[in-house]
Amino acid sequence: MTCISNYVMSPAFNQRVLWKKFKKGNRQAFEAIYHEYYASLYFYALKMTANRSLAQECVQDLFVTLWKTRKGLADISSIKPYLFKSLNRLVARSAPSFYGGPFSTKPKIDIAFSPEDLLIEQQDDLHKRETLTTVLNSLPARQKEVIYLKYYEELSYAEIAETLHINYQSVINLMYKAFKRLRLKTALKRLIDDYNTFPFLILSAELL
Amino acid sequence: MPLKGKTSEALKKAPTIVTRLIEDKSFQAWAVKSNTSDQAYWEEWISLHPEYREEVDIAAEIVRGIKFSRKQLSPAEINEAWQDLRYRIGKPKRLRNTWLHAASLAGLAIITTALWLWLGTEADELVYQTPFGKTASWQLPDGSKLTLNAHSKVAYSVSDDPYPIREVSLNGEAYFEVVHLGENEAIPFLVKTPDLTVRVLGTEFNVSTRRGLTRVVLDAGNVQLQLPTEAVTAMRPGELVEYTPLDNQIRKEQVDTEIFTSWRKHLLKFDDTPLGKVALVIEDNYGVDVTFEDPSLRLIRVTGEISDKNLETLLLALSKLFDLDIEHSRHAVHFKKMTKP
């Protein structure tokens, strides 16, 4: 009995059912999906485009296309990575013509973090947040994307792989590279900052 | 524990060991210090594998992660976006009596008269209708003038019970020039849309009921709007009111009324209007499905007047103005960036 209720309650099952209903043209299901994921999708698009109207337009376009093409869509059990993947492609297609005019070469989608994005427990630690932001923003675009999807959107590694259309191990490799760099750069930045504030400290450290 | 017994040989590559570590429940617990029972194990493991010191540190940092403060949208913001989406996917409903679509404009007046004679016996109702891509004007029996935008339908009736009243029901978009009737007591003229009733005595105004939204724009005189909630709103010349029963909200603003009524002169007027909105007007008036190569094209701003004589002229003007390739088939229009300068 518990087995059945677990089955019904499982999020994967619910998502599959919701998606099936939506595919059959059920407006409530479509609306439920929209309300559930709109904010996440909007902020993801906003991070990639840095433009509110373009971000809104991309998300709306995604849903208009979903609705129009619902009959031919695949059956899926996890909605969020599917939507993220579609949005990612759409933004990649739209951003160049939006920013560079129709004939320009493609600028890369590049996520930029701001200190306000970071949650740091100590209230007065603005400096720490700024340092981390600078270091995060110096990472290659792909590494920033994985970090955003993992810690901001809380996607699993498998879901990130689906979203970015790369394999699972590549996601981990990107994470590894990102954190390796973060360690190095944070340490370096701290050293430079400390040097600017207390030049003698480095000196004394060197003497030791 | 999965890592137990693995030799250094099996875990050669750094990303491989990082993968194994971050997937390991016990390691995760240790990294966030939530479970002290794993502590001894991992400290021992680390001391046995000093060569992985860096990987362990990195894996632990990945598990601990970066804490972001997540932004939220208010339910009102999400709902506003949903209304916008609903409007976009709200395909114009095919009007009934579709056999009229085939009728040429010249033939319409005759058909209308025929309809009147045919329906008149029962319902005392006159029906006026336009197909996609055509507008038309008529004088109503009370002397008022009716201009119907493309793909629209009006049914006109007069009643004396309990008091004299002129009444039309509207689907689509129409411009009314209502004449004042009645000596002592003015005879009201009502425009009923699926969502509300516009009550007037003598005035000029535009009413549109496309996509589940009623929009009234007042050129001259006074009108009153009666909502299903029994609420009544008065309008003044130059005002626009939009209402949808979905959120039961009235939106009122001062506008350049020409923008909403110039269709009568076969002109579409735009004032910093996104191309995406122009596309919806095209869908409503010509019965085609408009798509864009990418969503950014919907954001192109349109200002000025474009001839709306027919779809070809309109599309040609848009393509010239904005360097667009426009593919046009019977039921579909697709906007693309011009491929070559």
UniProtKB/TrEMBL annotation, chain A:
UniProt keywords (A-Z) are:
Sigma factor, Transcription, Transcription regulation
User: What is an example of a Pfam family matching this protein?
Assistant: Sigma70_r2
Ranges where the RNA polymerase sigma-70 region domain occurs = 33-91
Give every RNA polymerase sigma factor 70 region 4 type domain span: 130-182
Query: Mind telling me which Gene3D superfamilies this protein's record contains?
Result: 1.10.1740.10, Winged helix-like DNA-binding domain superfamily/Winged helix DNA-binding domain (1.10.10.10)
- Please indicate if the UniProt record lists Transcription as a keyword: yes
Membership in a protein family: Belongs to the sigma-70 factor family. ECF subfamily.
Query: NCBIfam families attached here?
Result: sigma70-ECF
Identify this protein by name: Sigma-70 family RNA polymerase sigma factor
UniProtKB/TrEMBL annotation, chain B:
Give the source's domain of life in one word. Bacteria
Q: Which PANTHER family match?
A: PERIPLASMIC SIGNAL SENSOR AND SIGMA FACTOR ACTIVATOR FECR-RELATED, PROTEIN FECR
| Organism, as annotated | Agaribacillus aureus
The record's section on Pfam families has: FecR (PF04773), FecR_C (PF16344)
The residue ranges of the FecR protein domain are 128-224
| Protein keywords | Membrane, Transmembrane, Transmembrane helix
Question: Which residue intervals define the domain Protein FecR C-terminal in the entry?
Answer: 268-327
Q: What is this protein called?
A: FecR domain-containing protein
- Which stretches are transmembrane? 98-119
Kindly give the InterPro entries that the UniProt entry links to this protein: FecR, FecR_C, Ferrdict_sens_TM
Among its keywords, does the record have Transport?
no
